[in-house]
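chain below, 90 aa
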Amino acid sequence: MSLPSADTPLYNHPLPYIEQWLKEQGCQQDENQLHCWRVQRPKWKAELLLDVEQIIVRYISAGENGQDIQRAFKYSLSRQDIEQAVFSGP
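prediction:
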C-alpha cells in the first residue's frame, strides 16, 4: 500500500493509509478505542485522537507544572504539514 504524496491533504487519504502512516511514525493503536493512538519519543509522549474533522494531539505532562498540552490539526492540512507539526513534539 503506497501513501499518497506528502503534500496531499490528509482528508484525501483512505483510513487504512492514515493508519499505515501512523504506524510508520511509531504510533500504536489502542485495542479498545480504535480512534486513539499513542506515540513515545525520548523527550515526550503523546496521544493522538482521530476525530471527525481533525486530529487531536495531547502531549502528556509536557507543559508547565506537568500539564498536558493539546493541539488540533484539521484534515485539510497536508500529511507532511501534520507530520512536521505533530512529531516535532510539544
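The mean pLDDT is 94. The longest strand covers residues 45-50.
thats it, cya
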